[in-house]
Design brief:
The chain is an alpha+beta fold. It contains five helices and 18 strands. Strands 4-3-15-8-9-12 form a six-stranded mixed sheet. It starts with 12 loop residues before the first strand and ends with a strand.
């Protein structure tokens, strides 16, 4: 047994809808994967290949609260379909990509938009705006064995009852098999990897005291209180 110099940190995890937990290895996020959102962010979705960034596994938070982060005055909500992998590999083919999926959940890609904007202007990585403590609120995972592979259905978000985001999973520019296949060209995917698949248009700021309700057909509602 390895004699670690301090206690091993807890394993990042996502609760499973009935019982148990899914251990998380890495989090990959695809940017601007809904055409309307790409346009509202000032980009042309028809001419851009997919691109990715990462969040830290310990950014995940299933507590139902989102502590407003430091060093920012402009935090935005982004509702996303979360994909959890049970296996992986390299150069995964489209016709077998979904075989690697364990389940799906509702998630939020919370973004310090002001810090992300500064990084963009300087041509720097986005992590300072994307990968901070509690930056990925998440609901329970639903296993494929129970719900199959959702490829269409409403995805929406309200803040204090006001509809902010609304779309359909079938509006994703890059579908889940394509995302898995593309990622596997550049990374060796493995069990425990999580993919956040992008957000519809309508992203916007939240403040302390706000109640976020994010939902995807078949996956229920993720309720998060901003504190």
């Amino acid at each position: 047994m390895t004699d670690f110099v301090f206690p091993v940190p807890p394993v990042a995890q996502i609760p499973v809808v009935d019982s148990g937990a899914f251990p998380v290895r890495r989090i990959y996020c695809i940017g601007r994967n809904y055409a309307a959102h790409a346009i509202e962010m000032g980009h042309d979705p028809d001419r851009e290949p997919p691109f990715f960034f990462q969040k830290n596994p310990d950014s995940l938070d299933a507590s139902g609260t989102f502590p407003y982060p430091r060093m920012t005055d402009d935090v935005h909500h982004e509702v996303e379909l979360v994909v959890a992998l049970k296996s992986g590999g390299t150069d995964i083919q489209l016709d077998t990509a979904l075989d690697h999926v364990w389940g799906y959940a509702v998630g939020l890609d919370m973004t310090r938009r002001d810090l992300q904007g500064e990084a963009k202007k300087l041509g720097r990585p986005w992590e300072i705006g994307k990968s901070f403590e509690h930056a990925a609120p998440v609901g329970p995972l639903h296993p494929v064995s129970e719900i199959g592979h959702p490829d269409r259905g409403r995805i929406a978000l309200t803040v204090n009852g006001e509809l902010r985001q609304q779309g359909d999973l079938d509006q994703m520019i890059w579908k889940v098999p394509e995302i898995i296949g593309y990622l596997s060209r550049y990374f060796e995917l493995a069990a425990g990897d999580v993919i956040m698949t992008g957000t519809p248009s309508g992203v916007g700021p939240v403040k302390r005291g706000d109640r976020i309700e994010a939902e995807i057909d078949g996956l229920g509602t993720l309720s998060v209180q901003v504190v």
